[in-house]
Structure prediction request, 419 residues.
Amino acid sequence: MINIPKGTKDVLPAEVYLWHHVEDTARKTAEAFSFKEIRTPVFEHTELFARGVGDTTDIVNKEMYTFLDKGNRSITLRPEGTAGVARAFLGNGLAGGAMPFKAYYLISAFRYERPQAGRLREFHQFGAELYGAAGATADAEIIALADSFLKNLGLKNVSLQINSIGCKTCRAEYHKALKAYFAPHLKEMCADCNARFEKNPMRMIDCKEEGCKKITANAPRMLDYLCDDCKAHFEEVKNLLNAANIKYEINPSIVRGLDYYSRTVFEFTSEAAGAQGTVLGGGRYDGLLEQMGEKAVPAVGFAAGLERLLMVIAAENAPVPEEKGVSCYLAGMDGKSRGQAFVLASELRKAGISAEVDLMERSLKAQFKYADKIGARFVAVIGESELNEGAAEVKDMKNSSSERVKFSELATYLKQKEN
Ligand code: ATP
Ligand code: MG
Prediction:
């Protein structure tokens, strides 16, 4: 037996309805906001992520699935969705098209991480991207989309935290203040933080090491360094969220510290998502498209982890519509009646009714047992007398009543009874 690779999971037929529920909710919510789906390749040139995600991030430094293909090109399985969407937007000339550009994705993503609850090597994301709009309404719109998605899933104990990390101009001042604050503590801080100190001190703020956390707790906060424009932008985002009755907290330790992130950043967290906590993260990244192309295109987006959401759905006992069993199981007894069941099944399917026949050559009793197990709504029995009459004995499995129904009227009968 060959084992499943570490950090990956099978989704079995019995549990796939949970995934369908989350994916359907994602699609419906995105489409209600008039976002269209975008599909990009599972792998891209490594360079795309090195530049698009940023080479000071954990993702690029430690977590990428990178390999040389047979043409000696460096290829990487996508660790996230944003870079691929940005590449597709620029590469397909969409920057010259109608604005804003609004797209969502449902993807698998790959990161070489230490597997644990809510942290896998292959995982799934629902994400959305909005390009072309620099104003605060776009930030609020993206947050509203994320919020609606979680509400449509029926989640109650997920909380929204927002922050502003300013722009290039005001962040320069802030970096100075941070460096002055951290300099005397560097010896007590982890190796990653020491590297961040040089490249991007703001990222030290969200270090998860206990020792570092104690020090960062009293560090200067970006919110106190925002320039007037960034302050006004943040105020407007908050006003719009208030107006839309979307509850939030301000959390100065959310930084998402890449250079091209700016202004609004946010996370939705739940205690049920395990030690990880964050089920959805996003923000504004006005510098990304300019860095990848030539033209500056403002952008804001988010990504949600579907495995973590499924954990939260289970923990909160949020309602999930069960997938229906087969509508009609057709039971035959001998060669002839089984033949008739086979023909009737295909007629029912043509009429849009799901149908199943015995493929295991079981006895009638065993067929009933099986039909019950798979949750068949009706069982249509066809034996010798039924064949002679041209009618099946149809049992309603809900209330055990049964009726003779002509073969030619079976589809109409089932459609009526189903509702
Ligand atoms: P974390 O801090 O938990 O590592 P992250 O900042 O790396 O998260 P993002 O890159 O913002 O995560 O990805 C968005 C979402 O994707 C996360 O909020 C989470 O729900 C999910 N996610 C990220 N990495 C994993 C993983 N390895 N396994 C499962 N879900 C993940
Ligand atoms: Mg991570």
In short: The chain has a mean pLDDT of 94. The two ends are 46 Å apart (CA to CA). Residues 80, 111, 113, 118-120, 123, 125, 276, 278-281, 303, 305, 307-308 surround adenosine-5'-triphosphate (ligand 1) (CB under 6 Å).
